[in-house]
Amino acid sequence: MKISSILFSTLLLVIISFSASMTQTKQTLNLMPYPKSVEFTGGEFRLTHSFAIGIKGNPDKRIFAYATRVLRRLSGRTGLFVPQDFITETTTADTFAMDLIIKRPGKVELGEDESYQLVVKNNKVTLTAENEIGAMRGLETVLQLIAADKKGYYLPGVKIDDEPRFKWRGLMMDVCRHFFDVAVVKRNIDGMAAMKMNVFHWHLSEDQGFRVESKLFPLLHEKGSDGLYYTQEQIKEVIQYGADRGIRVYPEFDLPGHSTAWFVGYPEFASAPGPYKIERNWGVFDPTFDPTKEATYEFLDKFIGEMAALFPDEYFHIGGDENNGKQWSANPGIQKFMKENNIPDNHALQTYFNKRLLGILTKYNKKMIGWDEILQPDLPKDIVVQSWRGVKFLVESAKKGYMGILSNGYYLDHIQTAEFHYLNDPVPGDTVFTPEEAKLVIGGEVTSWAELVTYETVESRIWPRTAAIAERFWSPQSVRDVEDMYRRLAVIDIQLEELELTHIKNYEMMLRRLTMGADITPLKIFADVVEPVKKYHRHFQGVKYRQHSPYTRVVDAARPESMTARKFRLLTDRYIAGDKSVKTEMLSMLKSWEQNHSSLLKLMDSSPVLREIDTMSSNLAEISRFAIAALEGKKQLEKVAKKVNLNDRLAAAAKPYGQVELMLTAPVEKLVRYVQGKK
Amino acid sequence: MKISSILFSTLLLVIISFSASMTQTKQTLNLMPYPKSVEFTGGEFRLTHSFAIGIKGNPDKRIFAYATRVLRRLSGRTGLFVPQDFITETTTADTFAMDLIIKRPGKVELGEDESYQLVVKNNKVTLTAENEIGAMRGLETVLQLIAADKKGYYLPGVKIDDEPRFKWRGLMMDVCRHFFDVAVVKRNIDGMAAMKMNVFHWHLSEDQGFRVESKLFPLLHEKGSDGLYYTQEQIKEVIQYGADRGIRVYPEFDLPGHSTAWFVGYPEFASAPGPYKIERNWGVFDPTFDPTKEATYEFLDKFIGEMAALFPDEYFHIGGDENNGKQWSANPGIQKFMKENNIPDNHALQTYFNKRLLGILTKYNKKMIGWDEILQPDLPKDIVVQSWRGVKFLVESAKKGYMGILSNGYYLDHIQTAEFHYLNDPVPGDTVFTPEEAKLVIGGEVTSWAELVTYETVESRIWPRTAAIAERFWSPQSVRDVEDMYRRLAVIDIQLEELELTHIKNYEMMLRRLTMGADITPLKIFADVVEPVKKYHRHFQGVKYRQHSPYTRVVDAARPESMTARKFRLLTDRYIAGDKSVKTEMLSMLKSWEQNHSSLLKLMDSSPVLREIDTMSSNLAEISRFAIAALEGKKQLEKVAKKVNLNDRLAAAAKPYGQVELMLTAPVEKLVRYVQGKK
Fold this sequence. Notes:
Shape of chain A: globular
Largest sheet of chain A: 8 strands, mixed
Number of domains of chain A: 3
Oligomer: homodimer
Helix content of chain A: 40-55%
CATH class of the largest domain in chain A: Alpha Beta
Radius of gyration of chain A: 27 Å
CATH topology of the largest domain in chain A: TIM Barrel
Strand content of chain A: 15-25%
Number of strands of chain A: 20
Largest interface: A-B, 58 and 58 residues
Distance between the termini of chain A: 44 Å
């Protein structure tokens, strides 16, 4: 029976009810991103101590180390003492439990074939791929297939045919606002590989830091980085690390704005006289390259030449966003230049600058990619527009014949839900793109901006939400069952930890620091149901964040999406829909919240840093009482309503404190209205 | 009132009862290692957003970055938005909440002054030190002094006078059996600095891996490391990292045994013909340098010359341990050489080898340190003997006038308690050393051997137990109140997490992997009361461990010391001593263990890797029932004893499963015997 991924979740339910012999595993495949096609063939391959992998064909050698790492992860999850120390090309074929059959070496470049076919039979696992990059994608699927029953671990009998929907599936890391060392970058690249992503966009320069060693212009990193930069050796190491996982690594140097840190060492290229200091605040700042000086282009030519040699990828990101034009407007020399050259406004001046940049990139055999502001006439057709301001800019660029990738809707620092990002499709079903235009949308990139994250929290913002987006980039458009996504995401979330990612484990670590050694339980009960405020509201609530502010408070520990609140929301919806069986579980949750406040108050005495959530903790207890009353019936709720103004109190509970939001207010309000008969 | 640390814990109790005005903080200073002298002067310094640090005097510049990191940690713990971005030498004095007054630049070498004086007054904190290394030690004390009340955070008014008892306070990391990358090494060095340790001993070569790049003999790392080695740039980076924290970094190259990995690239220096392969098993192996060939010394001269230039420390560790002599005895050429040169046995041959090595070290201005086997006549008096086999070798070396450091009793891989290590004193009160000999015992080193640990678990073996040993090395001999040590260790344990150490957070991460996404609670309840088997018993229970075995099972997740079991043990002792008030708490613990088995059984169905602890989980439930019956009284216990043979069942519960031990058997047996009236 063939299950097309288009309808897989619906059909699965049908199949399960028809097929009594089907084991539980088949209902609960935890694949993410879900493959193009999964066919259940019956039976299963039992994993034992003698499991081993053989590789046939003509792959690039990097597959040997990759497959060895996969074997270690399989062994780590199952506790199986598998005998292979290393998978090497010298191993003889046909004696292996699992064969990798790979036609040719792959190239780590845009558009490379990443397809694979996986067949799991009772006595053999066969993974076939055009090149080793496809094989890597398939190996990740094998790890996700591992299932267990009383007898041990196994892979269910399947035939999987898989390939990506989009060819550009990226993660952008801002390492400038806060710096992340090579270890952090590497483990996030590992996470990307596990999620079949293939582009790492390295945002390397900003007002707040210049993060790469330049041998030609050493004052860039020496004066612009506080000593926090990557050496060229480290850059090469990361590029190699990406390539070994089938992941392109390309740099962004944001020009002409976002460039304060450049001018600390080289003020002569700015549009206003220096001296400059590394920016410590957040926002959009004035310092901008002077596009009217030839010296600027001589400098950029040499610098880009140096970086072009360092980064082998064909694409080179020149930023181009958020130039406020203030330095240009205030500089008489620049104004004179504009008049003399018939450049009507700052936008046109940036167009002029970009054209000069394009010439430099072309000289070094690089193709341009930039934020959507770069879109202008007369650009070559191989450039890529990265849309951060919205899908309309993708449409605009596609209409002009330019390739585009979507980042709008994938801004992790907006603190949206996995669901929100998951349903944000570069080319949705009801797209306004013509089929020809749609082809120009070649993928998307998740963006991890780093104003409000440090090495302690950046991974909890990237993962697991990026896994949901990775599925959007890889799987067929029709794979969009939100509930099934969350079910699988919960498992994938934990598997990502084996790559040393700290997205789960730093949560309680941060709670422990906040409570200074006291029992964290009351704080965890609270933090489990709050989320940081959304969009950029954190900057507008009376707290002035700077580069070296403490990012260690409750709002930083709190996860971007409260799974506990989500669960309560779903239970509430079921209750309102008439399923009263959920009442017991709801009451149990509500009582733990109601009783939590006094314990948390006690904690605050020894941890004054928690004072800022005092009121919200009290509100949590109060709305929990409302919900308990509502579950007890209309009369009980009316009793409560006589004592307090429910509307006022629910409105009060919706207010943020300490930059966190209480995620239970909406479902409690819904429940109250339902019981009141108001909806 | 001056509290000498000699009697601090006893006196503290007296003072507390006499002084009603004393705040709670003063009873509960969480300093570790405890200072030589702490005087409470009353009052307190309130920490506010305007806290800032100024540095006066003539320190080495490294103090500026160190103090800045301390300020960030203070801000991170308290949530205070302190204004200083960086502490620099250009800041003007006298406007700071805290002054560092430092006389001269320090030297990162054996015997450097590490003393400091700290005075906390209501309006000023003053830290005075001979050099910046002492100031670093004092800054760590400041962080540990942070206390809180309802009004906020503060430092209690104190006058602290502190200096170390021993001048060599080391941690040895074996990075050969399993490799740990630079990030892991660095964060452990951070942990050392927090605990005022000052020597990092880097065990860089072994049968199972050669871990440093050699430019003169590149086949050493190319063929001997599986690609897992430190580049010379990375070595320099770590040495600098240590120096920036007042920590010496010196290398060990284990010779002439433990050297298989060298011979993979250079078989010609072995005592038997090659080829050699990197050893994948654990144990003592035959491959040994050929001490009779001049080529061996020419090679070692060049290699040691290269490494001597790389490592600036005056000491250089030549290993010298566990040469089994088999290759020497089996080699006719070596036998002939011994006869011709009147070398009676293998021990004498190693003495000859060591003398030649000593010549090479001397040529490169290095002093020799080695394991206690190196002890032999005619060595210069500046060598250091590292005793791994017992204090008697320290005595022997001291009697001969040699300096020694103790490692016996500090073997983390023996999986002993913090208490065991803590009470293991290099020069105990009842020492057999004469005062002159005692002076030759200059300290000790914790050893972290890496057969059974990976990057996921190594830190949970090092921390927090190493913190207790660090106190042994730093604090006066008389500081040995075990209960107070554990009280402080619980707080310090959590503070160590801010240095990115994974010793706490990887525990639940590993449990999550074992349960594949299911609720970990039943597994955690179990794992909380077991410990890995002690000494090297793991190797003798039917499981053959190799380099690439899975180190991800329950035994690996389990902590070396169960604090839950310790707590139950203490409660049991109190109960037996007549304090029946603990009964409720004991019953509550026992019931959770009794009820856990069925939940854990269910988990095993989906996590077969847990099957190995099935019997022990059942035993846990059973002995919990015994203990509950015992707490209910003699009659109830007798009822149980009629149904099962208590002695047999308790003996059965003492048996290890899955290489873990159930740490509750002893206290339950004690309780049962007590109620039976047998003791």
